[in-house]
């Protein structure tokens, strides 16, 4: 699915880019997706603007129709840095629903399609890069190692006050090089905001828009283009964990359904590509997820839901 096809399918109301003077051909594009981040977006943007590089980079800032002052802050920064920031002000009519949940997929993929750089880095609107040489270090490694699809580094998980979370509550980040096969099978899952990868073109699998875990689909996709290298000498980024978010503990059912949807999308993608081993791998993952969901429904006395899953287990 190319950009024209994506817009024809999902864009109900046209996105008009905010006026800017960004160069046509930067080496790198930083993709920032933001919604209701009024307390965080300034630090996020400052961490990007403070990057010291020997190449040009652009910031694609997708503001997703926030209900707080995030949009005003984004406009302020776009007007202050017209040679650096391309601002897209999104409309609620374009938001894509998945599992009956309104997602930021349109915003994320619109940014992705709009990127002009040879390399792409992500930074969520409430995350903060702490190393001003992060982009330079990552691009240098990618330039010197053509077998790599992306590089990544460590992060620190913090709450909304930027206080460290207890170790038992933090996400695990791999700290090693990752093979193509391990990426494609999602055996490791680096955080998107720590990654810098090659821009592999203007075509994306159509299944990518119809999952909640877009980052997981992207990771598997990147495995088709090369390996991943962990860079130790980059200061950890700050990754925000918000209480009561969509992935909080009480949403176990949603987590499982979302994971299953991603596995189904990847299974279809690799089936169409004729990669039978990966097709079988994700069929197995789908069955395992169904088994866990089946037991979850039994414990919750949701017998009708568990009955529907029985057919996929036997």
From TrEMBL:
Domain Glycosyltransferase 2-like positions: 29-163
Gene3D superfamilies: Spore Coat Polysaccharide Biosynthesis Protein SpsA, Chain A
InterPro entries on file: Glyco_trans_2-like (IPR001173), Nucleotide-diphossugar_trans (IPR029044)
Pfam families tied to this protein: Glycos_transf_2
This protein's UniProt keywords: Transferase
Coiled-coil regions listed: none
One GO MF term attached to the UniProt entry: hexosyltransferase activity
PANTHER family hit by this protein: GLYCOSYLTRANSFERASE (PTHR22916), UDP-GLCNAC:BETAGAL BETA-1,3-N-ACETYLGLUCOSAMINYLTRANSFERASE-LIKE PROTEIN 1 (PTHR22916:SF3)
Designated name of the protein: Glycosyl transferase family 2
Annotated organism of origin: Salinimicrobium sediminis
């Amino acid at each position: 699915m190319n950009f024209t096809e994506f817009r024809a399918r999902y864009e109900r109301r046209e996105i008009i880019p905010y006026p800017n003077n960004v160069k046509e051909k930067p080496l790198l594009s930083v993709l920032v997706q933001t919604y209701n981040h009024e307390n965080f977006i300034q630090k996020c943007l400052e961490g990007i603007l403070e990057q010291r590089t020997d190449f040009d980079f652009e910031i694609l800032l997708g503001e997703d129709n926030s209900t707080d002052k995030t949009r005003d802050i984004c406009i302020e920064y776009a007007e202050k840095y017209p040679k650096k920031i391309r601002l897209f002000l999104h409309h609620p009519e374009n938001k894509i629903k998945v599992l009956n949940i309104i997602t930021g997929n349109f915003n994320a993929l619109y940014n992705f399609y709009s990127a002009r750089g040879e390399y792409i880095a992500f930074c969520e609107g409430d995350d903060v890069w702490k190393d001003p040489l992060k982009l330079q270090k990552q691009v240098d490694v990618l330039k010197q190692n053509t077998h790599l699809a992306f590089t990544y580094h460590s992060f620190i998980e913090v709450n909304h006050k930027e206080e460290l979370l207890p170790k038992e509550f933090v996400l695990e980040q791999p700290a090693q090089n990752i093979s193509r096969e391990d990426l494609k099978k999602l055996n490791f899952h680096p955080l998107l905001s720590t990654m810098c990868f090659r821009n592999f073109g203007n075509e994306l699998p159509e299944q990518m828009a119809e999952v909640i875990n877009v980052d997981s689909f992207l990771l598997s996709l990147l495995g088709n283009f090369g390996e991943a290298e962990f860079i130790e000498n980059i200061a950890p980024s700050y990754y925000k964990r918000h209480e009561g978010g969509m992935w909080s503990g009480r949403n176990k059912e949603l987590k499982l359904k979302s994971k299953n949807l991603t596995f189904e999308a990847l299974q279809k993608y690799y089936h169409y590509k004729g990669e039978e081993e990966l097709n079988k791998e994700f069929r197995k993952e789908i069955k395992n997820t169904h088994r866990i969901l089946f037991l979850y429904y039994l414990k919750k006395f949701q017998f009708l839901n568990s009955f529907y899953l029985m057919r996929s287990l036997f």
